[in-house]
Specification:
alpha+beta, Alpha-Beta Plaits, 2 domains, two-stranded antiparallel sheet, 9 helices, elongated
């Protein structure tokens, strides 16, 4: 027979979930991400409470299955937490032109839900180790990631061309494909009143200077301004 969980144990598990989720949320907050401190704390606390309920909330029905018609599966609540957090994580993913932002924050929310669930189920050591590993990946890998990208990753950027009124965007796009040391991954054209904008996802070889690659476009009469993100 399962021993009832005391109020002190419940408070401890929820507080651990709050602290661990808050640590990850704090890192996301200072990084100016769409989901920050309060969101991660809420996810961790909610998952922890679901964990407590899934194990101890149905104790009154946890009798011998051969002596009654009740069939209790305590894992169903936990599995629904895993599925449900996907909707919240999806809301943090933002597409900006050719770039996609928020994937890391979505992953951190998913891990925070797992940490909260582990805390609610009493696996405090596993929750703490996971929190440390997540913070290490978020904070400790920033500098190595930048060095790896600088030495090994191909140059990539979003080039935004603001065209002169009446300019033919097809001619500009054709000039883009003729640029040396550049591969076009995607092109989008938008018009608003007299303003025409061409947005290009541009990829170059390792160590390429993208501003230098697109410099010939700035000399065209039909291009007013060139921005690189």
């Amino acid at each position: 027979m399962r021993v009832p969980l005391s109020n002190v144990d419940i408070v401890v598990r929820l507080l651990v979930a709050l602290v661990l989720g808050g640590l990850i949320g704090l890192e996301r907050e200072v990084s100016h991400q769409p989901a920050g401190l309060r969101t991660h704390i809420g996810v961790a606390l909610g998952a922890a409470l679901f964990g407590v309920i899934s194990i101890h909330g149905f104790a009154a029905y946890a009798f011998d299955r051969n002596s009654n018609n009740y069939q209790i599966d305590v894992t169903r609540v936990a599995s629904q937490v895993v599925v449900g957090i996907g909707f919240l994580g999806g809301g943090t993913i933002i597409k900006q032109g050719a770039n996609i932002r928020g994937l890391t924050t979505a992953a951190s929310l998913w891990v925070t839900a797992a940490i909260g669930l582990a805390s609610g189920l009493g696996s405090l050591f596993a929750a703490t180790v996971t929190t440390g590993a997540m913070l290490l990946s978020l904070v400790g890998l920033r500098a190595p990631r930048q060095r790896i990208r600088a030495r090994l990753a191909r140059g990539r950027g979003v080039v935004i061309l603001h065209l002169a009124p009446g300019a033919d965007p097809a001619a500009v796009v054709q000039a883009l494909y003729q640029l040396p040391d550049a591969t076009i991954r995607g092109v989008s054209i938008s018009r608003q009143d007299e303003d025409t904008t061409v947005e290009v996802d541009l990829v170059g070889p390792v160590g390429v200077d993208l501003p230098h690659v697109v410099a010939p476009l700035t000399e065209r009469d039909d291009v007013v301004e060139v921005d690189i993100a």
